[in-house]
TrEMBL record:
Residues 25-36 have a biased composition (Low complexity). Keywords: DNA-binding, Membrane, Nucleus, Transcription, Transcription regulation, Transmembrane, Transmembrane helix. This is Xylanolytic transcriptional activator regulatory domain-containing protein. It comes from Lomentospora prolificans. CDD domains: fungal_TF_MHR.
Length: 606
């Protein structure tokens, strides 16, 4: 019986290989190793193609040639290897969900059935009204009033602590003047029924309180907050009052969006993102350019106009990030927006004044918002999406594709060189990346550099990994498109090398990264893991592959350390556990692929 079972398993593996190997005519390591990248990031040449003793090559029979015209999904959220669609990014946890062909490919190359979690929400992914010390529950919408609010002094403390933190510049979803009015209106006693204005202010307050746990370094009492209860009430009011469009509801939608992202509920975040983008456009934020620096406004209207523009840029940043995560088209079209940058930007991004010791009483009043990473980088990200991942990109020839990649790569390098040297991202991870990133006056300044580094790596991979959906290798085997194939190999090698650098950078930065940055970094982590994993599968005999497997394994350890160091909610822990299990399975399959390839070579040598 054991012999029969073993025979069936062998036949199944061979059948899977025959079905998927139409996409992969040759599995081998490149005849050259990826380029050695200098720490200053100045080496932008293609990988060295000099002679090096290459490991044995595994020949795989071709049964069909992928046709670019049949590839319907070209967005970033789809995963392609040599022209074959092998999966997509889950909208629930942000991890890859492999298609039937992708699973057969993994089985053929590793000899093991992949055991990834199914794409479905866990038991805690929906908002639940759970009782907490500061959140009475069981109250319906008709009963919403000031009784549901925590003590005003508690809210004032959170508010004052937040606006004194540098994170209020990175995520400027509230304005100190306008939000002070929000607190006043929400708490002032008013007889009779609640007005829609007051309901909106209360919803904004609920959303702010729920989000404060994501910035717990600046909220000592965050553990007392039942975030889900407050977020649920904010959502209830938002749903009931959306017809009355105003900036307060826009702030509420943005803060709930961030709350869901922090909690790993990406599916809910995408829905709120659509609401926020539509609100900011209908309110005119895409055209309401304010030329007055922060703090120079002389009227409330001027403050509101400037803050609406700030909220537009926040929506814009999230729009480009989330479109890459879920593979859907961006909600905000640059061509219909006034893309004038805020006054003093980007020079205000790279001054040391806004950053200081978080233990000191620092006045950030009058400081310009910084936003996550760099607005110019996000604008370039939008251009990359249009040129490489739109429906029009499907009709581009190989030559046009490679030309666009070179153009975008040159623009990215131009942006990088425009950044002051102390903040400038590098292509490869420094020997001690976090130390290199935090040599300034404060840890928060270092976090800004860390996010710049991760966003830079992410955009570079976005630009170069697009070649994975084209089958240039098959043309090479028939003597066609040799130059194009070399360009594809160069882009793939670069995307893998940058992905390695991302994993190293995150590993070395883990001990100092804040909770907010930690939760945001999961996206960068998963993208890098996927790229390195498929490189191992495609090149199991490369001497670098065992090292890459250990690099994947170290990412699992990284998650454990992060979950122990920062205080996570139940949903955040669930999200971390899903990603951790995903990494462990990548490690297992990577090791199996290497072992399978080594055994195949030994068999051929006999």
């Amino acid at each position: 019986m054991k012999t029969v079972a073993r025979t069936r398993q062998t036949r199944t593996a061979r059948g899977a290989e025959l079905e998927v190997k139409g996409c992969f005519s040759t599995l081998s390591t490149p005849t050259s190793s990826p380029r050695t990248l200098r720490q200053d990031g100045s080496n932008r040449s293609a990988p060295d193609t000099g002679a090096r003793s290459s490991p044995p090559t595994l020949r795989i029979p071709k049964l069909f040639h992928p046709d670019r015209s049949t590839v319907q999904d070209v967005s970033f959220g789809q995963i392609h290897i040599e022209g074959c669609h092998v999966g997509h990014i889950s909208t629930h946890y942000g991890i890859p969900v492999f298609s039937s062909k992708g699973r057969k490919l993994i089985f053929a190359l590793s000899g093991e059935e992949p055991a990834f979690d199914e794409e479905k929400p866990g038991p805690n992914t929906g908002l639940k009204r759970r009782a907490g010390p500061l959140a009475p529950t069981g109250v319906g919408f008709d009963d919403l009033d000031a009784r549901l609010l925590p003590p005003r002094q508690f809210v004032e403390t959170i508010f004052q602590t937040f606006i004194k933190s540098a994170e209020s510049l990175v995520f400027p979803f509230i304005d100190r003047v306008l939000f002070a009015d929000t607190i006043r209106i929400a708490y002032e006693p008013v007889p009779g029924d609640l007005s829609e204005e007051r309901l909106a202010e209360i919803a904004c307050l609920f959303a702010f309180i729920s989000l404060s746990r994501g910035f717990e370094n600046f909220c000592k009492d965050s553990s007392r907050i039942d975030s889900d209860a407050y977020a649920s009430r904010a959502q209830t009011i938002l749903d009931a009052t959306l017809e009355d469009m105003n900036m307060t509801l826009l702030q509420t939608a943005l803060m709930l969006l961030m709350y869901h992202m922090f909690s790993g509920r990406f599916h809910s975040a995408y829905k709120l993102h659509a609401v926020a983008c539509r609100l900011v456009l209908m309110l005119g934020g895409h055209l309401a350019v304010s030329n007055q620096p922060v703090g120079s406004e002389t009227s409330r209207d001027a403050i509101e106009k400037r803050h609406l523009r700030t909220l537009f840029w926040l929506c814009y940043v999230f729009d480009k990030d989330l479109s890459l995560r879920n593979g859907l088209p961006p909600m905000i079209n640059d061509e219909f927006c006034d893309m004038s940058l805020p006054p003093g930007y980007p020079a205000s991004q790279y001054t040391s004044r806004p950053f200081g010791d978080p233990t000191e009483d620092i006045n950030y009043e009058g400081c310009s918002p910084h936003f996550p990473a760099d607005l110019l980088l996000h604008i370039l990200k939008a251009k990359a999406c249009r040129m490489l991942y739109s429906a029009a990109a499907l009709r581009k020839s190989d030559a046009e594709l490679l030309r666009d990649i070179r153009e975008l790569d040159a623009e990215l390098e131009s942006w990088r060189m425009s950044i002051p040297a102390s903040y400038r991202p590098v292509i490869s991870a420094p020997n001690n990346p976090y130390k290199a990133a935090t040599h300034g006056p404060s840890v928060l300044e270092g976090i800004h550099r860390v996010m710049l580094q991760l966003e830079y790596h992410s955009l570079m991979v976005t630009i170069h990994r697009v070649v994975g959906r084209y089958n240039t290798w098959h043309k090479t085997s028939s003597g066609e498109g040799t130059d194009g194939a070399a360009g594809v190999r160069s882009s793939l090698a670069l995307s893998v090398e940058v992905s390695r650098s991302t994993l190293i950078f995150l590993r070395e930065s883990a001990q100092e990264i804040t909770k907010a940055a930690c939760l945001f970094s999961l996206f960068f982590l998963i993208g890098a893991l996927t790229a390195v994993f498929f490189h191992i599968l495609m090149n199991p005999l490369d001497p670098q592959s065992p090292i890459d497997v250990e690099l994947l394994d170290s990412s699992s350890i990284l998650l454990k350390k992060l979950s122990q160091r920062v205080k996570l909610t139940a949903d955040e822990l669930l999200n971390f556990s899903v990603v951790e299990r995903f990494i462990r399975e990548l490690v297992r399959l990577g090791r199996c692929a290497i072992l399978k390839a080594q055994k195949s070579v030994m068999t051929l040598d006999k």
